[in-house]
Every structure is written in structure tokens, then in C-alpha cells.
Specification:
The chain is mainly alpha-helical. It contains 4 helices and no strands. Helix 1 runs antiparallel to helix 4, helix 2 runs antiparallel to helix 3 and helix 2 runs parallel beside helix 4. The longest helix is centred in the last third of the chain and has 20 residues. The chain starts with 11 loop residues before the first helix and ends with a helix.
Amino acid sequence: MRDHRRPGPSTPVAELTEVLDWRLPPAGWARVAEALDELTRALPGGAVEAALDELAYSGPARLRTRLGDDPVVPPPDELRERINRLIRELESDDDRAPD
């Protein structure tokens, strides 16, 4: 089920947790916010793979910086809160899922 384009963590919770450690310029965090919007819309139907791909493509692996670019920073507080809410929602969904 893992997509070879997204190496690393294999669950949505693990991938979102990893995002909390990213360092990106402000424009990068804007792309992450858009990917989180897509993930939020995908959650009710359970089809999160495409949204997670978009999130991965927004990450530091694609980051190129040049002298004079905006500095890379941790996630803004608002995004950190959104990510933590998504993690809690996914974990509660996992707890309710039948074995």
C-alpha cells in the first residue's frame, strides 16, 4: 500500500507527526496548509493517499534554497495545531475501527 514516492512513515499519523519536525520557508508552509486542506476534505471518505502524496511533495525533500531566500522555520503555531487535531482525529478513528 505504500507509495514509493513517499518513503518513510507508513501511516497517516506517522506522516503527519513527521511534518511537525519539518523546517520550511513561509511559502513552503503555505503549500503544506493547502495539502492539509486537501487531507481534511479526504478524511470522511477515507481516501487519504492522494492528499498524503501532496503533503509529501510539499515537504523539505523538494526544498531548494538560495542565498537571500526566506529562512526555513518550524511549522507556524496555527499549522501545528491543525496537524495535531488531524492526528487526534485519525487516532480516534483507529480506536473506533473494528478489529
